C-alpha cells in the first residue's frame, strides 16, 4: 500500500488546541451555559445571532459585508438587529404567527439575511429556496409546506405558480415598482419596512421549536422537507468555533447560497453566533471576482466546495498571482469528495491546507472534520467532532473494524440533528431504522487512526457540483415531455463537477432522435426544475432495464455507462 501523505497541523493559535483531549472530555451540555437561555429558559436563534451582541461593544462591529458589483454595503450587528426587527414587525402586521412557514426565494442580498432573521424572530419557520429553481421546483416545495408568505423579487415572481398555491396569503416583493403590485396579496418590501418600527419584542420559543426547513433530495419520491429546530444553535456555535476556528478579528466568507444548508448553518448561524464578520458576495461564480473578493475584504477564513476549487484550479495559477491573497489563514470545504490533488494545489497556491468537512442537510451541522490543530491525510474527511460518535456499520447495524467499507453511521442525538421530515414520518424513520444509528446513505471506511474515508453513496442520489439531485425528480420531469416514453437517470463521474446527470430514455412512437429534440428535452427539464437538475447527456435506447414490477434499474444503467458487469439480473423483466 502507498504510504499515506500527511500534512502537519496549521501554524498559529487555534480555538481547539488538542483534538484528542477534547474528544475525551467535551460535552454538549457545557456549551449550553454560554447562551442566555441557559438561565432565562427563553430561546431564539435570531436573538443569539444578533441581538445578544448588541448588549456589548460588538454592536458596532460589522456583521455583514455585501457586494455584488453594483451594491457595496456593510451592516453592523446593531443594523442587523434593527433591520430584522423591522421584518418581524412587517410579518406580525400581516398576521403571520409562530409556526407558520415563510419562504424566501430571492438572490443573495442583505434583504435576504434580514428576512431570515426576521422570520425567526416571530417564531415562524423559514424555508429558503435557491434562486435558480424554476416553477415546478418552487411550487412542489411551497405546496408541501403550505407556505403562507413569501419574500421574492418581481423578476422571480414569474416562477411562482400562484394559482396552485392556495395557502399563500402574502407575497413581499423586494425592489417592486407600483405596477408590479398587481394582486391584493402583493406588498412592497421597501414600503412595509419604511413604516415598520425598529423595536420588536422577540417571540421566545422552546429549544425544540421548529426553525428552518431545507428541501433535499433522496433516491425516491419528491424532495423532502428537512426540519431543524432552534436547539441546533449549540452545534452551529461550537463547530464554527472549533472547525471554522472563528476568532474575533476574522473576516469570514462562506460561498454557499442560503438555499442550501451550508449557506444557513455556516453562512448565517455559525459565524454570527460567534460574533464574526461575514462577507456575502452576490452574483455568480467567477474566478476573478472570487479572488478579488478575498483581496478586497482581506478574507481570513474561507468555506467553499470542491467544484469551486476545481474551477479555480482550472482557471490557472497565473490568475492567483494577480491578487493579494495573503490574508487567508484557514480554508475549508464541504459537499463532495475533496480530491487530494486539490489539497496539494491549495498548498501550492495559497500555502495552506484545505480542510475537508463532512455533513448533510439532515445533520444540520458538521460531524466529521479536519481541524487546524490536527494532521490531515489528503482524501480523508477527517475525524468525528467531539461529542459525536461516528462508525462504519453493516446492514444490520453492527460496527465494522478499520478498513472495512460499509454504511457511514452516527450515533443519534447530536444537537443539530433534523427533527422531522415534513409530513413524512415514514421517511424520517428510515434514517433511524438501525437503532441507535442515524444511517447517512454514504458509504465509507475508517482507518486505524480513526480518520474516515468517503467511498460513495449507497443509494442513487446524484451529487453534481456539490448539489444533491434526486434521480426520481428528474425522471418524473423527463417523462412529462411528449417525446419521452421512459427515463432513467444516473450520475456519471466527471472530473470537474464530481458527477454530471446522465439520462437514458426511450422515445414514444413517432419521434426520431435529433440534436434539436435532445436540446428541447434538456431545456424542458431546465425550465421546469433548475439548470443544475437538467441532464447534460441523454442517451436513447429502445428499452430500459426494468424490474418485473416496472421499476427502472438505475444500477444497470450505471453499469452500462461505466462498462461494468451488470450483476444480478434475476429481478429484471424479460
Ligand atoms: C456528500 C451538504 C464527500 C455526501 C452539507 C452527503 C460529501 C451529501 C462531503 C450531503 C465530503 C458532503 N466528502 N462527500 N466532505 N460532504 N458530501 O445534504 O454524499 O447537500 O451525503 O449537505 O453530500 O449533501 P447535502
Automatic annotation (TrEMBL):
Superkingdom of the organism of origin: Bacteria
Domain AMP-binding enzyme C-terminal residues, every copy: 473-551
Keywords in alphabetical order: Acetylation, ATP-binding, Ligase, Nucleotide-binding
Signal peptide: none
A cellular component annotation (GO) from this entry: cytosol
Gene3D superfamilies, per database record: 3.30.300.30, N-terminal domain of ligase-like
Protein family membership: Belongs to the ATP-dependent AMP-binding enzyme family.
The protein's name in its UniProt record: acetate--CoA ligase
Organism: Carboxydocella sporoproducens DSM 16521
Lineage, opening ranks: Bacteria, Bacillati, Bacillota, Clostridia, Eubacteriales
